[in-house]
Amino acid sequence: MKSECQLDDIFQVMQKKLSQEGLLLTSGGTDHQMNVMTIGWGLVGRLWREPVYMVAVRPSRFTYEFVEATQEFSVNIPADGMEDTVAYCGQVSGRDYDKFGERGLTALPGKQVKSPIIKECIAHIECQVIGTSTVRPERISSSVQDSCYSSGDYHTLYYGRILTILKEK
């Protein structure tokens, strides 16, 4: 059973998973109009007097369409042993594959957002988009350009107000 908690309760495991294997970002609804993707970048803090989780999504990604349409997303912290699933969700597109079905993931309704949470994950951060910005090529270093944007597919940064945090009891 999942219960509400504070960011401090999950922060260390979230940061560890983010830097080692990644987290799972879900968007859309639970009616098969949804997607899950792996994220390896994310920032948590306060912005505009709000607790915020900032995620970076490229416009070429299937997830981008859902976040744009719903203005919501959920960040899911995978349980130990989900490393292959996290890798898979970062290697294939939801346009072409049913990642939930193929990896045995269970989409549950979010508590405060339409975006699903993943039952098999140990914690979830539900967010409502309160702002966006687009990475501007002229404002980033050439080393970042070369290592992250050789294709020219610049991220949109979504600033999500943290509405609720859930974790396994």
Tell me what the structure shows.
The protein is α+β, with helices and mostly antiparallel strands. The chain has one domain: Electron Transport, Fmn-binding Protein, Chain A (Pnp Oxidase, Chain A, Roll), CATH 2.30.110.10. It is 26% helix and 37% strand. It has helices spanning 7-20, 62-70, 83-91, 99-103, 142-148, and strands at 2-4, 23-28, 34-39, 43-47, 50-57, 72-77, 107-108, 117-118, 123-134, 156-168. Strands 1, 2, 3, 4, 5, 6, 9 and 10 form an eight-stranded antiparallel beta sheet that branches. It has a two-stranded antiparallel ribbon with strand order 7-8. A hairpin with an 8-residue loop joins strand 7 (107-108) and strand 8 (117-118). The model has no long low-confidence stretch (mean pLDDT 94).
Count helical runs: 5
Portion of residues within helices? 25-40%
CATH class value: Mainly Beta
Please provide the count of β strands: 10
Number of domains: 1
Distance between the termini: 6 Å
Unreliable segments of 5+ consecutive residues: none
> What is the CATH superfamily label?
Electron Transport, Fmn-binding Protein, Chain A
Task: Assign the structural class, choosing from mainly alpha, mainly beta, alpha/beta, alpha+beta, or little secondary structure.
Answer: alpha+beta
Most strands sheet: 8 strands, antiparallel
At the third CATH level, what is the topology name?
A: Pnp Oxidase, Chain A
Which shape, going by the Cα principal axes?
globular
- Rg, Cα atoms, Å: 15 Å
What is the architecture at the second tier of CATH? Roll
What kind of assembly state do the chains in view correspond to?
single chain
Mean pLDDT: 94
Strand coverage percent: 35-45%
Order of helices and strands: EHEEEEHEHHEEEHE
